[in-house]
Amino acid sequence: MAIIEVTIIPIGTESTSISEYVADCHRVLKDSDKIKYLLTPMGTVIEGELSDVLDIIKQMHEVPFSNGAMRVATTIKIDDRRDKVGTMEQKLNSVEIKLDI
C-alpha cells in the first residue's frame, strides 16, 4: 500500500486562483473506488496500490490541460512501505501516541 502526496499546479492561466482546477482534479478522485484521499491546503494525500494511485495521478495531471492550462507542474512524494501495511491514519496515530494526544 502506498501513500502519495501530490500537488498539481497549472501555469499560464488567466487567474492566480487555482481552486477550480483543484476541484476538477478532485472529481477524478471521487470517481475512483480503489483509493482513499485527503485534500489538504497544499496538496492531496492519496492511499492505495501504487499502480492505481499513479494511474489516477496521471489522469489528474491531464485535467488542467483539458481546462485550458498550457503548462502543468506536478510534484509527487511517495511512501511505499513493503514490510507492513501503512495507512494515513496509522501514520498519524503513530505520531499522536508519541505526543500523548
Automatic annotation (TrEMBL):
Transmembrane segments: none annotated. GO terms for cellular component: cytosol. Residues 5-96 form the Thiamine-binding protein domain. InterPro entries: MTH1187/YkoF-like, Thiamine_BP, UPF0045_domain. It comes from the Bacteria. SUPFAM superfamilies: MTH1187/YkoF-like. Belongs to the UPF0045 family. This is Uncharacterized protein (TIGR00106 family).
